[in-house]
Amino acid sequence: MIEPKDTRKDLILFSDSPDDLAWDIEVDVLVIGAGGCGLVAALAAAQNGVSVFVLEKEKQAGGNTSLSQAMVPAARTKAQIAACIEDSVELMTEDILKKNDYQGDPALTRHVAEQAAGLVDWLNDQIGIKLELVTEFIYPGHSSYRIHANRSRKGAHLINDLINAAKRFENIDMAYNAPVKRLVAAKQDHAVLGAEVEIEGIGRNLARAKKVILALNGFGANREMLKKYISEMAEAYYFGHEGNTGEGILWGEALGAQLECMGAYQAHGSVAHPHGTLLTWAVISLGGYQVNLEGKRFVDEYHGYSEHALDVLKQKGGVAIEVFDQRIYDTVIEYEDFQQCLEMGAIKKFERLEDLTASFSLPAEQMIRTHEAFQKAVLGETRDPLGREKFGEPLHPPYYGAKVTGALFHTQGGLKINHRAQVLRADALPIPNLYAGGGTAAGFSGKTGPKGYLSANGLLAALVLGKIAGEDAARSGLESG
Q1: In a 10 Å sphere around its CB, with 0-12 CB exposed, 13-18 middle and 19+ buried, how is residue 124 labelled?
Q2: Inter-axis angle of helices 89-99 and 106-122, to 10 degrees?
């Protein structure tokens, strides 16, 4: 784990006058981070005619987007309308706010919900990146079929498509292995002037920009920040990108930015153990269930995969056994995450429930009672004692099982922004020339814990805010000359 430095001198290079500095690079818009947020921001800015330079500290683009299932929620897209799906911006906004117990900013939440359909249609129609409407099931917390994803359900493929799209723009340049060491800002008003970057093979450079977009992720890989803000997950298995060390948040804080929702995060209660691969939550959504090592179900599995991580971690050994059948297997077999689980041997097939029970060393009689009670609840013969109401169909042999654990995916707190994705100071005024999106900006998951995370909120914040930031930075940069 990397521990970012925490003094203002190490984080910000303050200047009395930008003209006194020896700038090596000059560009209209500087984007720091080449994940989904940064690449979308770069495309949106470049499409508006400005020069863009993207800096990525790792050897390749991706960030947490590359580890995702490439799913973006949006209401009233062309695909939704064509499929005659009933949905609205108001309903999507309500779903997000309901999930986070109305702790989010309602105006900003609605604004992002309003912009989401434009983002999806723009990617499909103008950028050439196809996101299709997912109709196999409705993800927990959503009131309609509004999740859009690429065919593989793989974030790495989305990143590749975004990079290929960026290559078509002559006004986009990118540098890998190019970590930003400090932001450069005016001493008087903290207006951001650019960044100090160390480019591999070249050395340290000062990059001047009219606008700077912080498109880094959160601080999931920074143990010190986790201990400070999310202590309950400081020692949990981390499933996110190792580059998420929080420096974007620290830079903003050093410039006087407001921090918001720093205790919020996305977790996942279905990561194959010890393989460290994601067993898609579709297994649960389609009717699977989990038991602990005592052969007992311990919670309504459908309540949300993020908060479910804590439920799993509370069980003996911090693990659970996920049980599903051939119908579910056949539905998710094409998901690449599921394919990885199969390749690594995380999923086992059994002709009888008794064989599954023995393989995972579960108490036989208890496991049979648990399974029979679950089946009766599915059929509506009894009420589920744990309160689950959505089941799918009854399970039939052959059965499949996988040992899973809970994990931290990414943090949801960060810099407070306005509708233009500008970073706000404590007095609610924007820090001049500075934008943020993705994991660097505060997300839409409430103030604390994993419960407020609604499925696909991560890419909602990353891609929609990236587009907003890129477009506004381009327009503002052109207006400023």
Answers
A1: middle
A2: 130
Judgement on whether residues 285 and 217 belong to the same structural domain of the protein: no
Report the pLDDT value the prediction gives residue 7, as an integer from 0 to 100.
58
266 - beta bridge partners?
A: 410
* Average pLDDT over the chain, rounded to an integer: 94
Is 117 among the domain residues? no
The average pLDDT across 289-301 equals: 97
Report which DSSP code applies to 335. Answer: -
pLDDT over threshold 90, residue 380: yes
| Terminal Cα-to-Cα distance of the chain (whole angstroms) | 41
Q: What is the pLDDT of residue 481?
A: 61
Q: Rounded to whole angstroms, how far apart are CA atoms 278 and 192?
A: 39
Based on the fold, state whether residues 377 and 424 are members of the same structural domain. no
- Whole-number Å distance between alpha carbons of 349 and 334: 17
By the 8 A CB rule, do 162 and 129 touch? Answer: yes
Structure tokens at 450: 């994993």
CA-CA distance, 7 to 23, in Å (whole number)?
Answer: 24
Residues 367 and 310 in one domain: yes
Question: How far is C-alpha 344 from the geometric centre of its chain's CA atoms?
Answer: 24
Looking at residue 139, the DSSP 8-state letter turns out to be P
| 135 belongs to a structural domain | no
Q: What is the pLDDT of residues 77-128, one digit of tens each?
A: 999 999 999 999 999 999 999 999 999 999 999 999 999 999 999 999 999 9
415 class by beta-carbon count within 10 Å (0-12 exposed, 13-18 middle, 19+ buried): buried
Structurally, how many domains does the chain consist of? Answer: 2
Same-domain status, 228 and 376: no
pLDDT at position 2 over 80: no
User: Using CA atoms, how far apart are residues 288 and 374, in angstroms rounded to an integer?
Assistant: 10
- Could you tell me if 34 and 52 are in contact, meaning their C-beta atoms sit under 8 angstroms apart? no
Give dist(CA 173, CA 50) in Å, integer. 12
Flag whether pLDDT at 18 surpasses 90.
Answer: no
Task: Give percent of the chain with pLDDT exceeding 70.
Answer: 98
Co-location of 419 and 394 in the same domain: no
CA separation for the pair 197, 90 (Å, rounded): 42
pLDDT at 6: 43
Mean pLDDT, range 308-328, rounded to an integer: 96
Domain harbouring 424, CATH code: 3.50.50.60
CA 63 vs CA 154, 155, 246, 438, 462: distances in Å: 13, 10, 12, 10, 11
